[in-house]
Please model this.
Amino acid sequence: MKITHLSAECYPVAKVGGLADVVGALPKYQNDAGFTAEVIMPFYDNKFTQSEEFSVIFKSKLNLGKQEFPFEIKTWNHSNIGFNLYLVDVPELLFKDYVYSMDDTDRFLAFQIAALNWMLTWDEKPTTVHIHDHHTGLIPFMMTQCSDYAALKNIPTVLTIHNAQYQGWFSHSKVGLIPEFNFANVGLIDWFGNINPLASAIKCAWKVTTVSPSYMEELKKAANGLEGLLSAESAKCVGILNGIDWGVWNPETDAYLVENYSINTVEKGREVNKKWLCSRYNLNFEKPLFAFIGRLVGEKGADLFPKTFEKALQNENISIFLLGSGNDVVEAQLIALKKDFEGTYNAFIGYDEKLAHIVYAGADFILMPSRVEPCGLNQMYALRYGSIPIVRSIGGLKDTVTDISEKGGFGICHEEVTVSAITEAIERGEKLFENQEKYQKIRKKIMGINHSWDASALAYINLYKSLNQ
Model:
């Protein structure tokens, strides 16, 4: 079985969010399970591509409407990521220093067309084509409806929706950019008067998955306009919970950590990492440390952080640390808080991979008050490293974190995304921290929870098999 994944992101080449982590891990686990999985992604002009070496294995041209663009397929010369990675280089369109921007329609259409043009030349076609989010959403349509790709029409396609809020809409005035198809079937790409790649993928893919079971059910009620479509197509929809790369996210071997540790040495190891973090950012090691890692966007509840932190920090017995960026106004407010709460609060505006790993290993609690969380990986990283997640019960957070008030519970959950709800959850965390016997017991418990990709990769394999019977 040969599975070809197509995605706009893949760790470690280009990462904006959790999509990159998933596409950078799932194929590796599928290969480990004895199958052949590979990834095709765009070739960007970023730090990674500037510092690595690549070889060209294929050259051709593509048509985007009446314009012709040369493109190349490249491989990474020193890849050791566990799967074959191919990068589509369309110099005039894709080779930018950003992943997403205002010109995404033309860029990602060119990416999809180039990938399919190359696929036509393969002696061994994929058993299954697995696409991820709207950036690759027109591939199932083109494979089945465009005359250029008739040789690919019987290959099963699987769509994974990582975030349905983003759908890639564009005007029908650009329909001519799509390779020739029977215009009688234009409804397969239309949704409410626009070309909608995600809606098209839901209609045309053989199977549709989301990154957690709860998120699939939530999308039938709130999917930024796609609720009715997902309900209508529910027979081919299934939620499969994401996993995390157990090798990369391993406190015993993580090279980013100040001190490595296992479930048996968790107290000493986490103490060293927390002391480093508190010393570096002027925080009190003795106090429970609450941390947030991520994008400062409304989906994550980050717009509430300035007021929430200001209210929570009236309690001088706690500390808060934030690592993130994404909204200039929120960033400015979070920076301003440093003056008022020196010694109990600090923030790193931006992203630093090493620092993120140390925060998971040093913070006592990880905050995730998300309004939308299709799966969430941060709570899984936190569990792996022994940091107790404080989450809003939604999407994948609901599927992976059980409140301490319930039998066998190990996290702190809240139902609303409000300043008071988040503050109350932090207060519950402080009370738990005061009971060190219970806190330490929970910490060891969560480090034993296995959220590796093993089970999820197998679930996808079984899904592919069902399409090839």
